[in-house]
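Annex B, item 7. Sequence and structure tokens for protein A, then protein B.
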Amino acid sequence: MQVLAIEDDALNRRVVRDMLMVAGVGMDEADSAEAGLRMIDRMEFDAILMDLRMPGMDGFEAIGIIRQRVDAKAKLPIIVITADAAANLREQCLAHGADELLLKPVAMEELFDAIGRVIASRSDGSMML
């Protein structure tokens, strides 16, 4: 399994990478939404971990661009991982096309559970948030 983490904070990327390594999950990193979109064009991923608040393009805009693709990558599972705790954030994420929402700091079990849920939900054609 290969995951793309789109996160502007290097420490947050390192923490997630260390968690994923425990389970043998590979992770590529992008430090901006723009860089992440370029990586999606060139590489294959099983899921995307997306921060919302980044300089330049934010996670919502990046999710929208992914969902507008005309290829199979438009259906890539996207897990938002954010420190934003706005009251209606779950609804906003769903409206923009995310499959799952995790709040920072994320625990390893939460991360693995979310990845399992989104991969399973995509395999039967449904979406989950």
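Protein B:
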Amino acid sequence: MVKIIADSTCDLSKELIEKYDISILPLHIHLGDDEYEDGVNIFPEDIYKWSDAHNTTPKTSAMSIDEAMDLFRPFLEEGREIVCFTISAEMSAAFNVARMAAEELEAEDKVAVINSENLSTGIGLQVIEAAVMAQEGKSAAEIKVEIDELKTHVRASFVVDILTYLHRGGRCSAVAALAGGMLKLHPCILVENGKMRPDKKYRGKLNSVILEYAGDLEESLKRAKKDRVFITHSGCEPETVQKVREYLEKLQHFDEILETRAGGVISSHCGPGTLGVLFIEE
């Protein structure tokens, strides 16, 4: 059976990783001179504490070629094909690193590296679809063809609670961050064609903003693949997440409503309180 691998930005829970037999390739997070592996020896709460103490955002980087080779090699030695997902090539070198690792192992014909053109569970949705195909006995080449078609239908967006982390990371000006805080503005960030872009700005308390955001997605949600929808957040209050879950339940559309926490790489850029509803639109 084809082995499914994804980098750590897919933000899938341990339960889903185990259920679908997915192996994770951690990206790196740099806190000053110290380097960590996302989800292995550093977690979002550690990042928030460090970032607030140092008034800056951590640096993040792709895994090394050797790390990717070390993960690929045992599965190739077993005679298995591999499908490996990475965060959008527009956002990280991870895609090129994974591709070069396959070349170094002289296994380009056995390893299909997929540029997800997405992030977080926008990748995770693709990974689970691929895992299901692998369980059905499809080859790596067949899976790649189907995913390349499917990934254009992934809908990934997030509402950001505070603009401080985007400002620290150079993704929003100091004036915009200050004004956003004073006016209680919460921008919606869309992922399109592998890139992030700002969309609607919501105003008010996060609890009401999140429901307004979910409501704006309703027509697309009703056209979504019924299998699953993700609520992915970077540390929202439980009642906020529950309100979104209840809203999705009332739609009576999805077989599964899955909640996951954003990992270290995603959280280090968006900060706490960010929440997204992610799905595949048919």
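Comment on protein B: The longest helix spans residues 121-135.
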